[in-house]
Amino acid sequence: MIQGILLDLDGVLIKTELETFRFYQNYLKEHYKIILKDSDFKYKFGRKSKDFFLDVLTPEQHKIVQPEKLTELKRELFNTQIEKFVSKVDGVHKLLSWLVEHNMRLALCSQNEKRMIDTVIVWLRIRKFFEIFLSLQDIHHKKPHPEIYLLASKRLGLRPDECIIIEDSKDGIEAAKNAQMICIGLAHEYTPEGYLQKADIQIHHLLEVPQILQKKFGVQ
After folding, report:
1. Beta bridge partners of 87
2. Which of 53, 134, 186, 192 has the greatest CB tally within 10 Å of its CB?
3. pTM of the model
């Protein structure tokens, strides 16, 4: 019987990919006269900023911009101007409320730093829904290693087969499978076709989850 829902943060409860890209795009244009095309977003989706900059900047631009410093600036601004970098995924509060009302136990499992997660939790007003919050500081291995999900299930006192994971990334889905847990993959308007193919179930909206839990897993 399914008793626990383990949720990723970025891409599941909030969107930051396009917002972060727009920040970099505007900053590089304003400060360095470097133009990133809208189509360059494909290099950002699902990837770390350092890898993104290696693809979109020339070696000369890389030296001038110093992406590490720009990434650090983005982190600092994120915690003080969160609205510029985050948008809420549709259906977040309705889904979380439904899950709690149906006795699901929730864990938030994010590889982001704890400070960033705390900022988002306050902004989204979701602390009351979760029993467990895991961050980068809680793990030794990043996804696709299953550590974060195995740790979450352990802290909830549940077996892997009693948990379902909601993810939006390849590494996250692979982490779920490595943990031997069922995974629901959430696709967005910019998710490439086939990107979530290893997920057990694919959805396009969070509010598809209740029906799936009721019909496929007998949640009452």
Report:
1. 15
2. 186
3. 0.93
